[in-house]
Structure of Prenyltransferase/squalene oxidase repeat-containing protein:
Amino acid sequence: MLSAARAWGATALTAAALMSTGAAPALAASGSGPASASASATRTSALYGRTDPTYDGVWRQSLSLMALRTQGVTPADSAVGWLLQQQCADGGWPSYNADPAKPCNATTEDTNASSVALQALASLGGHTDAVSKGANWFKTIQNKDGGWSYNPGGASDANSTALAVSALTAAGVDVKSVAKDGKTALSGLSAFQLGCTGTPAASRGAFAYQPDKSGKLAANDLASAQAALAAGQGRLPVSATAPVTAATGSATTCPDSATLAADYLSSRLASGGNHLTQSLAGASPTPDYNATAWAVLSLAHAGRNDAAAAAVNWLSQNAQPWIQGDHGMPNAGSLATLILAAQATGKDATAFGTTNLVAQLEATGPAPKSTPATTAAPSSAPASASATRAAAAAQSSSGSGFSPWWIVGVCLVAGIGIGLYLSYARGKRS
């Protein structure tokens, strides 16, 4: 016979099970794009996030592992194992391999995903072989201009080059010594930067994604945000550093690449209301949450703490649409990037505006192996890690509040609880 306490406990466990399996979000998202059978399958796997992993599986897994580790969370062994199994025989990673038993296609390996995967394993520790293989892979696919492309063999771009430099730095490699045809990794990166000569003041220090057909460089904020970290030989995760005063040089001297890039990002954020924007053809500018978060990481590494803090505060108040993604399901990559930005600036990721980023990210993937012990949780806080995960799953099941499917689920759970209690009461009376 169930006791009253166990009857209520069973009801709570049922609620947690409904939320942790992602059943309600999957139903709510049915017929709305990528959130289909493949997305549902990933919810029960070792992968963070519920959306189709085809293009970002390795990317979001790597960022998630790093982000949770910065919060004292030890991710599930299955989550780390998933990332290790995605590594190709040559040391690189694809964007996502649905069947790791099959060999990778070397021409479609993803330098961006490989970079964050290597940085994640380096930050977790204990994966020397995988990290070393990844670093060697980056060396073998370096282009003759010193840079890297998104897929091996393509034209170099600033973002991919920057991420490669950060990956090599994380692996303990001296990037100044990594060269092809006399062009080092750092010189390959600096080739995309707009310098002090012949550049409008507002664009000095910016990085272009790639030169146009005429060889001209145009400032690109995401390229600048990611390249600034690499130019300062930074890596993920970024730790808060001592503040540094901007040094813009004199009339006859130009600051070094990292300083110039930090100057550009600080200026752009200040003029844009502490965030960066993106403009698509025929559309009004919209906030660029991703570029803003990367700018925070780069500026925190550079010691530009005031600019980084102002931008991360803006994100804490405005980034909810980015967290929810296009289909109303929590975006693991966005959550992880914001956690990393919060960590870099000393901001509490569990109270990011009105959002507990850590609980929400945990709720998108396998239960962690361990979490930090809580000694004096406030009375309004969830009583356990499971309750926190369940609450986060409920919070993130839709863009705003509960969907109709969640109402059905809640009613169902309530009915089960009432039934269990009545059963208990009948047993007591007999």
Notes: The mean pLDDT is 82. Residues 185 and 330 are 36 Å apart (CA to CA). Strands lie at 179-180, 183-184, 277-278, 286-287. The longest helix spans residues 404-429.
